[in-house]
């Protein structure tokens, strides 16, 4: 048995290493006299990459079965080999059709539609094995809707069309949609080098040293490394502007730290995803969307930074509170008797293996380099630098193993992202998001709250699987005039849409940042997305708060009338609301909270953020009373025992 496991391990390392080298060569920038190798033509590179992902997923499943003691029957091996041959044929056909599209117009036939359906079937099966049922089932539902949309009732009914063309182009042969569409392209162009960088960081010993140092410095603090993870992810995210790239760039280091502290894999991945997503709203850089907003609204970039500062800090404060309450609930609070692993001089030296690559990435991103180019430059710097670790000096082949492990991680993530591609293809080809937003825009003419709710839902639906920038632009074009018709200033309307565009990357069912984090934390992708939504609840509440109280955006362009007293009261309201909402969502404060207590706290937090002065004053008084009473009830049992 062990001999079979070892052979499978070598095979999956070879496949993972090949995938890693091909992926890096595709996005490697040119250096001085060294020309670029890629980018490769997508007509042959995407199907080859997809085939390698399927092969790795199959071998990974075999190895996992044998490692966990489960049987690997002959019929399972034969079924997987047939599936692999089927995918190979689909990939060859993709290349043939792609080359035909370059020269002429292509008309699909029934055989092409069957090829697309076969590719969907194999990918769904592998996704079910690797990631569980939820993502696979959602993908199947999207496939069913794409196939039968003209039979659905009401607004869900599509215009029909040629089923053969729809299946073939939208699911498999289209460069923008489907299993190997634009979302899959994001993995190839941005995510892959960051995942491999993280794998090399772990393989060169930097990750272990970072964990030991973090525990030594933070073991006396509640939540420990989770706090540093929030800061690191936020600071990196504000530079990169990409939630997914941020997750895979810093999560490979921070997620193991959080898990080792005692948090679950789902919570660790969710915290990384939410902190990474928030980087796009955190000054001073905020990614490309903020630059577009400044130009679109007609204000200076400094105005955008000042406007978003309080909401962004409030969001990150809510993440700190989420860690605080979760730590209390799990009983992992500070413990003076807890002895961290001893830190050696080599650990401090190894710390440079993390600091140097991240410094290179941040510097290059600030200078305008692409995320992929910055991360590959960091990898090239890290490979020779890792020799300062004596373990790598004695066993340099560990770096090859780390590259291969990075390729395996990319392959597993790509299978899940391929299913996301089915969902995105179904939405874009049927036109449901746009029809939904336009129809409900008319229904919201008489209520600002209805308009805001519709806009929020539209942002999340349209942003599923889509980068924040195009999602923000698309929804502001549709809903922006409606919001401004209710008297909202342009910067307020744009900021509202922007926040929900950011939230879409952690919102089920297509929570692409949460799925990326789950691939590192080994948690369930859908469970990680659900926990992300709970942790990031303030990301959904804060935009409503600054719409009804523009003073939160600080700048006069938002429409608020500034006065010191009103501003300080707004900050006090916000702080109390954050505490009440954080404890309510965790269902824990000094001790467990019942359902009614949690709902009461959440309701008080919402009223505190409302525009009504007297209700917010009453909510503040009642909220403070609830907190005081809760602490008194916590003390009494202890006194009784004494």
Characterise the protein shown here.
Helix 8 (206-218) packs across helix 10 and helix 21 runs antiparallel to helix 24. The chain is globular, with a radius of gyration of 25 Å. The longest helix is centred in the middle third of the chain and has 34 residues, at 397-430. With 642 residues, it is an all-alpha fold. The protein has helices at 2-27, 42-67, 74-103, 110-131, 133-148, 163-173, 182-203, 206-218, 225-240, 243-260, 265-278, 287-297, 301-330, 345-366, 371-385, 390-394, 397-430, 432-443, 448-462, 468-485, 490-503, 512-521, 525-535, 537-548, 564-586, 595-608, 613-641. It is found in: Cell inner membrane.
What form results from the Cα inertia axes? Answer: globular
Classification by helices and strands: mainly alpha
The helix/strand series, from N terminus to C terminus, equals HHHHHHHHHHHHHHHHHHHHHHHHHHH
Cα Rg: 25 Å
| Poorly predicted segments | 637-642
Strand % is: under 5%
- Count up the helices: 27
Major sheet details: none
* Average pLDDT taken over every residue: 81
Distance from first to last alpha carbon: 58 Å
Number of strands: 0
Binned, the helix content reads over 70%
């Amino acid at each position: 048995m062990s001999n079979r496991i070892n052979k499978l391990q070598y095979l999956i390392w070879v496949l993972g290493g090949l995938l890693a080298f091909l992926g890096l060569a595709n996005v490697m920038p040119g250096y001085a006299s060294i020309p670029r190798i890629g980018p490769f033509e997508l007509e042959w590179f995407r199907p080859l990459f997809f085939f390698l992902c399927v092969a790795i997923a199959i071998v990974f499943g075999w190895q996992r079965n044998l490692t966990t003691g489960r049987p690997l029957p002959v019929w399972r091996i034969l079924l997987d080999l047939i599936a692999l041959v089927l995918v190979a044929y689909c990939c060859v056909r993709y290349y043939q059709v792609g080359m035909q599209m370059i020269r002429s117009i292509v008309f699909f036939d029934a055989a092409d539609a069957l090829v697309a359906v076969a590719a969907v079937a194999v990918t769904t099966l592998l996704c079910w094995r690797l990631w569980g049922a939820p993502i696979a089932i959602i993908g199947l539902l999207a496939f069913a809707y794409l196939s039968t949309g003209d039979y659905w009732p009401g607004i869900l009914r599509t215009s029909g069309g040629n089923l053969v063309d729809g299946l073939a182009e939208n699911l498999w042969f289209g460069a923008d949609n489907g299993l190997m569409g634009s979302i899959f392209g994001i993995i190839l162009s941005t995510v892959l080098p960051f995942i491999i960088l993280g794998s090399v960081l772990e393989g060169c010993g930097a990750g272990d040293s970072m964990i030991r140092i973090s525990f030594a410095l933070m073991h006396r603090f509640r939540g420990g490394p989770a706090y540093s993870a929030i800061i690191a992810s936020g600071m990196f995210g504000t530079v990169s502007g990409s939630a997914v790239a941020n997750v895979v760039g810093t999560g490979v280091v921070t997620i193991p730290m959080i898990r080792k502290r005692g948090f679950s894999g789902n919570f660790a991945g969710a915290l990384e995803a939410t902190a990474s997503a928030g980087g796009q709203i955190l000054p001073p850089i905020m990614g490309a969307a903020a630059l577009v907003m400044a130009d679109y609204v007609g204000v200076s970039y400094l105005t955008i930074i000042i406007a978003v500062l309080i909401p962004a800090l409030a969001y990150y404060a809510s993440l700190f509170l989420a860690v605080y309450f979760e730590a209390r609930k799990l009983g992992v609070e500070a413990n003076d008797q807890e002895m961290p692993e001893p830190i050696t001089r080599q650990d401090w030296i190894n710390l440079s293996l993390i600091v140097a690559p991240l410094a290179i990435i941040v510097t290059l991103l600030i200078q305008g380099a692409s995320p992929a180019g910055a991360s590959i430059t960091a990898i090239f710097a890290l490979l020779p630098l890792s020799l300062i670790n004596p373990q790598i000096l004695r066993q340099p082949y560990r770096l090859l193993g780390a590259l291969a492990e990075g390729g395996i991680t990319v392959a597993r993530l790509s299978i899940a992202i391929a299913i996301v591609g089915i969902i995105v293809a179904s939405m874009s080809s049927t036109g449901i998001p746009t029809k939904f937003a336009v129809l409900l825009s008319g229904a919201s003419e008489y209520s600002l709250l209805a308009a805001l709710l519709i806009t929020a839902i539209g942002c999340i639906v349209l942003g599923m699987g889509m980068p924040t920038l195009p999602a923000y632009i698309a929804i502001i074009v549709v809903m922006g005039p409606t919001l401004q018709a209710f008297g909202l200033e342009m910067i307020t309307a744009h900021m509202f849409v922007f926040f929900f565009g950011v939230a879409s990357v952690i919102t089920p069912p297509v929570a692409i940042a949460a799925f990326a984090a789950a691939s590192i934390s080994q948690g369930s992708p859908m469970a990680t997305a659900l926990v992300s939504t709970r942790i990031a609840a303030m990301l959904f509440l804060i935009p409503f708060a600054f719409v009804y109280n523009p003073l939160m955006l600080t700048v006069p362009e938002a429409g608020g009338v500034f006065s010191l007293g009103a501003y300080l009261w707004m900050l006090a309201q916000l702080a109390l609301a954050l505490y009440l909402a954080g404890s309510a969502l965790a269902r824990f404060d000094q001790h467990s909270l019942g359902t009614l207590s949690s709902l009461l706290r959440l309701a008080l937090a919402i009223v505190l953020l409302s525009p009504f002065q007297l209700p917010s004053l009453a909510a503040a008084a009642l909220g403070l009373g609830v907190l005081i009473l809760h602490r008194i009830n916590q003390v009494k049992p202890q006194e009784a025992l004494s």
